[in-house]
Amino acid sequence: MKQIKKLICVICALTMVATIPAYAKSLEIDRYTSVNIVSDILPANVEESTKVIQKNPRGVFFSAADLRIKNENGEIGVVGHAYMSEPVDELYMTIYLDRQTSDGKWEQVDYFEFEFYGEDYPDGLTSELVAFTLTGYPTGHYYRLRGTYAAVKGTVMEGFGPVTDGILIQ
After folding, report:
1. Closest CA to 64 of 47, 42, 80, 43
2. Do residues 111 and 97 lie in contact, with contact meaning Cβ atoms separated by under 8 Å?
3. Rounded to two decimals, what is the model's pTM?
4. pLDDT per position in the chain (170 positions), as tens?
5. Four-residue CA torsion sign, 121, 123, 128, 133
6. DSSP state, 155?
7. Which runs of E-coded beta strand occur in the chain?
8. How far apart are CA 49 and CA 159, in angstroms?
9. CATH 1.10.3210 for domain 2-169
10. 62: which strand partners?
11. DSSP β-bridge partners for residue 69
């Protein structure tokens, strides 16, 4: 009986000592980014590109999102729009500006973040538009926009990620 107790104690001690913690590998953030999404390069005479994404069949309240880039005489016009089918509690929009490099890849050169809260909209947060013009960026390059739009209602979040085609800003 003593030998069985001793054996059980040794097994328990070895089990506790031999336990090795396992850690998940950390993400390489640069590897997992939408900057690597392929975009068409539009002809030099095309001055505007718009991407519209419609409601996902599994979506409940986020109806559509669009994103537009426009050449405005060497400046970059940006318009982002989010449409809801019912009022939401929060809406987050991030718009990324990418420039094509000499090797044909895209590099992020800037980003712009916007936050909207339902409590600021007495009639409900059902649609939001951001529009602005970017100045001071070098001309003679192809630029595109990427968007990350997320709407929150209660504990549910839905989102879209429109990406425009590249246009020449000159």
Report:
1. 80
2. yes
3. 0.79
4. 778 888 888 887 777 776 666 554 444 544 456 788 888 899 999 999 999 988 877 778 999 999 999 999 999 999 999 999 999 999 999 999 999 999 999 999 999 999 999 999 999 999 999 999 999 999 999 999 999 999 999 999 999 999 999 999 99
5. negative
6. T
7. 48-54, 62-72, 75-88, 90-100, 106-117, 125-134, 141-153, 156-160, 167-169
8. 21
9. no
10. 84
11. 49, 78
CA–CA dist 48, 126 (Å, integer): 26
Instruction: Count CB atoms within 10 A of the CB of residue 132.
Output: 13
Distance between CA atoms of 130 and 110, rounded to whole angstroms? 16
* Domain range list for the chain: 2-169
Residue 32 corresponds to which tokens in the numbers above?
Answer: 């997992």
